Structures are given as structure tokens and as C-alpha cells.
Amino acid sequence: MRRVRVVVQGMVQGVGYRYTMRLIAREAGVTGWVRNRYDGSVEAEVEGSDAQVDTVLAWMAEGPPGSRVTQASVTDIEPSGGGVFQVLETA
């Protein structure tokens, strides 16, 4: 099991990034969350098998149509286990 924290920068707010990511994450079978940050970036935690997490990370590097990802910072963190993928309030 792998869990990562990701911060994506660029034109990633106001383009459906979080809600599309929720669909992608659920299709991939991962757990975690995604939220906007006040600095204009999007932050997420994604947990699943290596292959599942890699699938979501690949999508996050591209984003939905209308977005423009300029940077994605990925940090491995301790898995927490279980849950569903959620869209959280802005932090």
C-alpha cells in the first residue's frame, strides 16, 4: 500500500480539477482526498496499490481539459488505510 501527498500548481482551480479527480480516483480504486488551497494550487492525498496511485498521478500531471499543470510535487507519506475518495473544503 502506498500513500502520497501531491500539490499541483498552475491553472488548476475553476476548471473542474477536484471533481474530475474524484471520478478518476474512484475509477482507479484509490482512497484519499483533494482540495483547493488558498494559494491557487490543488492538494491531494492518494492511497492504493503502486499501480493505482501511479494511474492517478499520471492523470494529475495532465488534469482535466481547460487546466494547465505547471508543477506537481509528490511526497510519500504513511498509509492510513480504508475510506473513500472525497473532495474537501479549501485549506
Automatic annotation (TrEMBL):
Its EC number is 3.6.1.7. It comes from the Bacteria. The keyword Ligase does not apply. It catalyses: an acyl phosphate + H2O = a carboxylate + phosphate + H(+). Keywords: Hydrolase. InterPro entries: Acylphosphatase (IPR020456), Acylphosphatase-like_dom (IPR001792), Acylphosphatase-like_dom_sf (IPR036046), Acylphosphatase_CS (IPR017968). Pfam families: Acylphosphatase. GO terms for molecular function: acylphosphatase activity. Residues 3-89 form the Acylphosphatase-like domain. It is an enzyme of class 3 (hydrolase). The active site is at R18, N36. The keyword Acetylation does not apply. Belongs to the acylphosphatase family. This is acylphosphatase. It comes from Microbacterium thalassium.
